[in-house]
Amino acid sequence: MHRTGELFGQFQTLEQQKETATLGMWVFLVTEILFFGGMFLAYSINRHAYSTAFGIGGNMLDLKLGAANTIVLILSSLTMAMAVWSATTSRKSLVTIFLILTLILGCVFLGVKVVEYKQKYDHHLIPGNNFDISYCVKNRSAICGTPEELGKEATEIEEGLKVDPDLNAHSQLYFSLYFAMTGLHALHMIIGAGLLLFLIAQASKGRFDANYNTPVENIGLYWHFVDIVWIYLFPLLYLINRHLA
Questions:
Q1: Is residue 4 part of a domain?
Q2: Per the confidence metrics, is the pTM higher than 0.90?
């Protein structure tokens, strides 16, 4: 494929090339919206059908870790936006710095998510044969929380069983959707981290400036999309029916 500078041979101008690439990215993001939309629909239908079990399941998530990850992703969107700005204004050294900061924040997010997943494993909240919504209440382990927190959890489960006798099965459905939705989101974060590594390698060579910055802008769009998905996941999974008191 012939190239003249950063211009591929099938395009007449860099502007035409950029518009085509941007259109392609938006088409891809629309398909991603449809993909995630199906999962959001499944979650909404089941949440309506088994609201008690889903409410109890949501209260078993670590709100502090979820909120911290939300702040981390918002900051990563800021650094990504600054990377795009730096590229479009030919501040080549800043492009690399902001891309590295974005990558670090993305890795922090994934690290926190690993901690959350480990908590669910310790609490026997991984869907499967060992799933038990009452495990922490039965065992009163220190890894599950303070005595006061476990007391509230025991009361909530006891009241929930009165409303929904199949509470354990329906709670397992909640955590199945939790892992499916957050796991898919984490996969997109990992892909985004790989793309950032590519951008960092190119930016370190001074490749991006005001004349050519299409990869930074388009990968920035992808990163912002992934961040927006989490902005919807956080309240749906963590905040609905949350007992803050």
A1: no
A2: no
